[in-house]
């Protein structure tokens, strides 16, 4: 079978494609055909050698931990009806960058119908970790919640879950793409953490801080917590002093919240977040999907930073899944474009005039038929926008076949006008047709309609 090994400790270049014997299921075990694996900071730390001793890893080894795939074989003592079931599981910090993995059948969690395996892979760690933090934070309706960093896969999941819990979410991230993604996920205010006065830009104090950075950034976030608030750190790095927290009546939570081990909480949280995603209440953001053979590039991209959402590696045949997942990415960029009120970004989602373009903005609107007309419409629509607090995609359905694709979704867009500060709200259903051109999906037909009865 195809696999990727770290043949020594070092940079991404130590990851090499190899052929290994496929695993056989032992007693009580199952073999899973790997569809997708999440890429974590821990994978980077072990590969570099920094965390290898702590986790008992020595080269050569196959990296990776969080897997989504399909059960293809089971050992003695395991229900044969598991074969063919879509599942997520973990391998224990190594072994997942391969076409097949063998794991304890007790560690398998069923993926609900309607949820993509790539989405499930993005939730293996991010989903359960985010839920553990949200449960510990005990957010009350109306409380202000600061998420930092908000542009990662985990951060964007925290934004969504904090909002579901009734919180008013403010988010700190770096760069326009991450800030737009945080707005699309439900943050009502976003600030660039690269700015020296980012905490001032938050405005009033917050009740809860969910901090995945620590050190200077974490301490700065701590300063804006109101008396009686909660500060939850999951970075593992130094943060606020306990004595200062007691003086200000702030409750501190550390990494013990997210170190679930083999407790029943791991299964409970995983099942719950998969269910929330299948029901459409949360949506993992997948930034990039790399083929197994490009695992080194996936690690290099992760280390360069600035990514939006979770990075995945797929051991599936790329053509079998890329169309579906890339169309999801097209919709996510659409949402981010409106979140940033960026007409140029939105225009860039369209094909050129060599295609037959149709843009119908409303039931009785005159169709727009050139890229120039569409660009002008976006500018005229977005120029009056002063701020955006909602750019939300729900009820998303995707169909892909070859170089043709269709997407259906509901889109809510809301904020305030620049000149009058009056609030605007748009709630529409969108049907769009896309074509794959030069290895990317572009829009060729777009139609808006009222959402109809809920």
UniProtKB/TrEMBL annotation:
Q: Which keywords describe this protein according to UniProt? A: NADP, Oxidoreductase
List the protein's name. NADPH:quinone reductase
**Keyword Oxidoreductase set for record:** yes
Q: What is the lineage of its organism?
A: Bacteria, Bacillati, Actinomycetota, Actinomycetes, Actinopolysporales
This entry's Gene Ontology molecular function terms read: NADPH binding; oxidoreductase activity, acting on NAD(P)H
Q: Does the keyword Oxidoreductase apply?
A: yes
An example of a Pfam family matching this protein is ADH_zinc_N_2
Going by the entry's taxonomy, the superkingdom of the source organism is recorded as Bacteria
- The signal peptide annotation in the UniProt record is none
Every copy of the Enoyl reductase (ER) domain together lies at: 10-313
């Amino acid at each position: 079978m195809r696999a990727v090994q770290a043949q020594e400790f070092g940079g991404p270049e130590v990851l090499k494609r190899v052929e290994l014997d496929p695993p056989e299921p032992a007693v009580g075990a199952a073999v899973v055909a790997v569809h997708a694996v999440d890429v974590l900071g821990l994978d980077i730390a072990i590969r570099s050698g920094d965390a290898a001793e702590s986790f008992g890893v020595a080269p050569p080894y196959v990296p990776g931990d969080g897997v989504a795939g399909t059960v293809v074989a089971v050992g003695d003592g395991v229900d044969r009806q598991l074969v063919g079931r879509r599942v997520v599981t973990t391998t224990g910090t190594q072994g997942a960058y391969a076409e097949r993995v063998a794991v304890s059948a007790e560690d398998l969690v069923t993926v609900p119908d309607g949820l993509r395996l790539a989405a499930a892979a993005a939730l293996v760690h991010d989903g359960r970790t985010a839920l553990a933090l949200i449960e510990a934070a005990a957010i009350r309706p109306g409380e202000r919640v600061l998420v930092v960093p908000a542009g990662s896969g985990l951060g964007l999941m925290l934004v969504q879950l904090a909002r579901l819990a009734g919180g008013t979410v403010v988010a700190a991230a770096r760069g326009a793409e991450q800030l737009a993604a945080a707005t699309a996920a439900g943050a009502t205010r976003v600030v660039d953490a690269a700015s020296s006065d980012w905490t001032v830009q938050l405005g009033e104090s917050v009740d809860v801080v969910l901090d995945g950075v620590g050190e200077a950034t974490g301490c700065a976030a701590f300063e804006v917590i109101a008396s009686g608030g909660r500060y939850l750190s999951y970075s593992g790095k130094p943060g606020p002093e306990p004595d200062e927290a007691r003086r200000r009546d702030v409750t501190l939570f550390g990494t013990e919240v997210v170190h679930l081990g083999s407790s029943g909480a791991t299964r409970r949280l995983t099942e719950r977040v998969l269910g929330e995603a299948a029901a459409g209440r949360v949506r993992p953001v997948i930034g990039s999907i790399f083929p197994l053979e490009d695992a080194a590039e996936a690690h290099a991209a992760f280390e360069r930073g600035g990514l939006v959402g979770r990075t995945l590696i797929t051991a599936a045949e790329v053509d079998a899944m890329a169309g579906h997942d890339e169309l999801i990415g097209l919709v996510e960029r659409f949402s981010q474009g409106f979140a940033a009120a960026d007409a140029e970004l939105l225009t860039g989602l369209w094909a050129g005039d060599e295609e037959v373009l149709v843009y119908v903005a409303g039931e009785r609107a005159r169709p727009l038929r050139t890229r120039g007309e569409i660009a002008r419409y976006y500018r005229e629509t977005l120029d009056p926008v002063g701020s955006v607090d909602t750019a939300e995609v729900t009820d998303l359905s995707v169909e892909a076949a070859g170089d043709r694709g269709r997407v259906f979704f509901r889109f809510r867009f809301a904020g305030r006008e620049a000149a009058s500060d009056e609030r605007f709200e748009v709630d529409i259903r969108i049907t769009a047709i896309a074509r794959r051109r030069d290895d990317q999906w572009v829009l060729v037909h777009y139609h808006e309609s009222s959402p109809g009865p809920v």
